[in-house]
Write a structure and sequence with these properties.
Length: 100
């Protein structure tokens, strides 16, 4: 009778542990799927970052070339300065623009 009780207890333990193992296997599977999805998202984000970074680099390069051209063609533009001074004294010009 004692042996039969021990066997029943062990059978019960086996069932409980089997359920726990199944639950843990499901959890591991979920984590693996989440990891795969997150890795794919990080790879996509990285590719987007590289594309955006390249775009910024091209923009900076274009601005540097434009500044070089403007500096190369920099000469006295007296009429332009006079027009800007005249414009800055207008009453309908916003205060923020006058202070620039």
């Amino acid at each position: 009778e004692l042996l039969q009780m021990a066997t029943s207890k062990l059978d019960s333990d086996v069932k409980d542990l089997g359920a726990t193992i199944a639950e843990l296997q499901n959890t591991v599977g979920e984590h693996a799927a989440n990891q795969k999805a997150q890795t794919a998202q990080r790879e996509k984000d990285h590719a987007d970052f590289l594309a955006e970074s390249k775009d910024y680099e091209e923009s900076v390069d274009a601005l540097e070339r434009a500044i070089f051209v403007l500096e190369k063609h920099n000469y006295n533009r007296g009429a332009t300065e006079a027009a800007l001074v005249q414009l800055s004294t207008r009453a309908d010009l916003p205060e923020k623009a006058k202070n620039m």
